[in-house]
Amino acid sequence: MFFLILFFYLLSFAQNKTQTISIIPTIKDFTILPHTQPKCQGITGTCWAFAATSYLESEILRIYKEEIDLSEMFFVYYEYLEKVKRYIETRGKIKIEEGSEAPFVFYTLKKYGCIPDEIYKSKKIDTFYNHQLLIKEIKNFLKEINNNDIWNTSWVINSVKCILNKQMGHIPDTFVYNNIKYTAQSFARNIVRIKPNDYFWFMSTKEFPYYEKHELIEDDNWLNDDNFYNVPIDTFMMLINQSLTSGYTVCLCGDVTEPEYNKSVNKIAEIPIYDITHVLINDNSRTFRLNNTSTTDDHCVHIVGYYKSPVGFYYLIKDSNRSAFVSSPYGYRIYSENYIKLKMMNIIVHKDIAKRILDRIIK
Asked: pTM value?
């Protein structure tokens, strides 16, 4: 057993040495797919909205060859309202925080529509989004609702709307875009033309049977969304790679707490050798980290490019986190294939790619 472990360690060390010394991709090495300019989420926990909105914008570019800058904060506004509704329904049983899951953008698109960023940018503080006061005010208000047992849905929702309008700004009922008047729903239907039902979410954990739909067990999944198809990690990675090589971008969420994540001068997220040998990254090691919570759903990003190196795929990540704007290339990172395999939790892909797996599930 000792010699077997030593063998895997030395093999992984050799692989790691090759990856970190010989293969250091830069942005010029990547096949870059159509996407819009990176935006910073500021001091907010709204990465899920920035990542999924960016993904929608790339889908518009891919399908219609049109560039439309959508308002991320439109989705955030309605996410707060829907979350407060659920808080009332459950009598305060869900957490009210800034975080959410990327699929919520698709639920909002279907129910409320969307609007251009030029129409609703939302309020900023010193040129940055900052929701610290917003979330504090909402939580304090709901604490009083809970303490005094005031569960009047319409009154509570209207009160939270007042908070949102004060802190974020009022969303107009109608607006003019290219000299035509729209509502959020008519803009989504006639200009954006993205069909939410054409998109599917996948996760990978041994905690549930594979090739079935299950709930993503995560605090940010306050909606208790159980529409995540669970697949083995090799299938999960296949969905990502087939999407990218076929010209489709991918929305990706997972863990960004690895010790080396923000230390690389090249902004490359890699699994360090002292964590786990790369040959042992599999369904077991992945699920182990999910179970002991060293992997959590911290952050959502948008994969907008790929580079197939001799040691595996690297991915160009469009990232809204402030730390991604500290150095060049601004608003971008690079993830290794091993990093995604071990630490990233869920993805959104188009039906054209998803159907290759769903045909095995949906009869």
From this structure: 0.92
